[in-house]
Amino acid sequence: MNSITVIGGGSSAHVLIPLLSKSGLEVNLITSKPYRWNDVVELEYRDKKGEVIDKFRGDLNIITDNPNDVISKSDIIILCMPVNRYRIALNDIGGFIPKDKKVFVGTVYGQGFFNLMVDEMIDEYDLKNVVKFSFGLIPWICRTKVYGKVGILYGVKDFNLIAIEPKSEFESLNDEFLRFISDYWFGRGSFKLSDNFISLSLCTDNQIIHPSRLYDLFEEFGGKWSNFDDVPYFYSDCSENTANILSSLDDDYCKVKDKIKDLYSNMNFDFMLDYLSFNRFFNKSESNKNFLDSLLNSNSLSNIATPVIKDDDFFVIDKNHRFFHDDIFYGLCMVKYLAQKLNLDVYNIDKLLYWAQNLLGNSLIKNDKLVLDDVYNDKFKYGVSLFMRYDNLDDIIK
After folding, report:
1. Containing H/E element for 277?
2. How far is CA 66 from the centre of its chain?
3. What distance separates the 2 farthest-apart alpha carbons in the chain?
């Protein structure tokens, strides 16, 4: 029986643990809050009306905050946490991964050039037998009902993508792991193999949706509200302006992707898609006629709230939320870097980066060029520092 270690306490962990355990696999958990986790984790599978249509229960073998307790015995390690925490987690576990054993190391969401993060760990700890993988998107729409105890699964994507190196390991991982997290239980959500990681790293999903919506909420409301009931839903209350910003960011991303396709015409980029094509691929049953429709009419996203915190007399958008740290530092900034290397103007990305640096108090952009000074001082915070290890684009675009 394979031993699987989940790292992190995100909503996806609350889904993986019950599904994998119920499939007969041994599941361990590394978390900074082991005292908050039950030995048995429940999962509520709900329909679009919120009614519970099935329940899953899964046992955790070991719950710990010490990688030494489980990593050396793990066959598969998967990260379930915000993108901006990936490199910190990999750095924490790298010294405990055995050098003489094949170990799969992956993540439920492949944004931020996850393959380069794993390469960073491999080089640092001289690991030759690590098989790296990442998903195109999180396989389900999920939330945490009671942290460490109960998760909620709202919907399953029709298909998903995975990049894996070496690609010859795909069938093995699919048989031993992938099929048990979606298709085996729900009859959909099977994985298709992407020829490269960069197609997933440049997916136009969260990394352009979240900044677009946040920008619009600040533009229209100043990012604060007197009453909690006045806070718009993140998706189902979207305006045409959000859709227009989203469309403009997608245009900039497509400039970068089209240039890469042109320069590396020998590579297969079948899954390097524009926003609407990417959205339709994953959710064939959803309504995706246009940008606004994709946000307003998604059954699986309709109840997602805007991330706010209480500040004096107002409810304000949480500037420490992963929507900023994932999708600015490990999203827009990284694509801006590629655009500069490719001599492309991406004015819409620039506009969002100027806004973000003023809001967050970071130095990100000046004279329409990335400011890289802080990257060297706090490398794990900025995804661009991953690129500094390479002399040319050939080593990044793989």
Report:
1. helix 275-282
2. 24
3. 58
Q: What b/e sequence results for 178-187 when a residue is b if at least 16 CB atoms lie within 10 Å of its CB, and e otherwise?
A: bbbbbbebbe
Beta strand 3-7 pairing with 76-79 = parallel
Is residue 58 within 8 A of residue 40, CB to CB? The reply is yes
Please report the domains of the chain, with CATH numbers, ordered by start residue. Answer: 3-200 (3.40.50.720), 203-395 (1.10.1040.10)
Angle of helix 333-341 relative to helix 347-360, nearest 10 degrees?
Answer: 140
Phi and psi for 70 in degrees, rounded to 5? -135, -30
Strand 150-156 versus strand 140-146 pairing type: antiparallel
Report whether 323 contacts 218 (CB < 8 A).
no
Runs of H (alpha helix) within 126-161: none
Sheet strands side by side (includes 314-317): 224-225, 314-317, 308-311
pLDDT band at 176 (very low <50, low <70, confident <90, very high): very high
User: 106, 105, 132, 148: which is closest to 13 by C-alpha?
Assistant: 148
Euclidean distance between CA atoms 79 and 388, whole angstroms: 24
Q: Which of 386, 361, 381, 364 lies closest to 373 in space, CA to CA?
A: 364
Amino acid at 391: D
Tens digits of per-residue pLDDT, 115-167?
999 999 999 999 999 999 999 989 998 889 999 999 999 888 888 999 999 99
Q: Which residues contact 77 (CB under 8 A, 6 or more apart)?
A: 4, 5, 7, 71, 93, 97, 103, 104, 105, 106
User: Are 373 and 388 in contact, with CB atoms under 8 Å apart?
Assistant: no
Please say if the pLDDT value at position 398 is more than 80: no
3-state secondary structure of 33: coil
